[in-house]
Amino acid sequence: MGMRIEADVTRGNAITIIVDGEALPAFAGETVATAMLAAGRQVFRADTGGKPRGLYCNMGTCSECLVTIVASGRRVRACLTEAVDGMEIATRG
């Protein structure tokens, strides 16, 4: 987890989320956006022209970080959605 600050940080238990079929490490209590960024994933969706979109405001206002929860098909803001162990996320579709 090279992009995470490691020194003097207390985190929840280690968990795994699945993004576009790829297992990504995460910690209980952090957002999907945090886990994705820490794993080097900067593209959260594509706009109507097919251009990649990523995290912009990180507070739920802009909706640039919309991803799809596979189990429900629901679109959510990754910056506001808590990562849950085994959660499957799709950035396409």
Task: Give a summary of the structure in a few sentences.
This protein is mainly beta and 93 residues long. 8% of the residues lie in helices and 29% in strands.
Overview of the molecule:
InterPro entries: 2Fe-2S-bd_N, 2Fe-2S_ferredoxin-like_sf. It comes from Edaphosphingomonas laterariae. Pfam families: Fer2_4. A hairpin with a 5-residue loop joins strand 3 and strand 4 (52-53). The longest helix is centred in the middle third of the chain and has 7 residues, at 32-38. This protein has one domain: Roll (Ubiquitin-like (UB roll)). It is mainly beta. The strands form two sheets. A five-stranded mixed sheet has the order 2-1-7-5-6, covered by helices on one side. It is built from one helix and seven strands; from the N terminus they run E-E-H-E-E-E-E-E. It has one helix at residues 32-38, and strands at 14-19, 22-27, 45-46, 52-53, 66-69, 74-77, 88-90. The model has no long low-confidence stretch (mean pLDDT 92).
What's the topology here?
Elements lengths: L13 E6 L2 E6 L4 H7 L6 E2 L5 E2 L12 E4 L4 E4 L10 E3 L3
Parallel strand pairs: 1-7
Antiparallel strand pairs: 1-2, 3-4, 5-6, 5-7
**DSSP helix fraction:** under 10%
Number of domains: 1
Work out the oligomeric state of the chains in this entry.
single chain
Helices, by number, come to 1
CATH-derived architecture: Roll
Series of H and E elements: EEHEEEEE
Per the CATH scheme, the topology name is Ubiquitin-like (UB roll)
Strands in their spatial order, largest beta sheet: 2-1-7-5-6
**What is the CATH C level class, in words?**
Alpha Beta
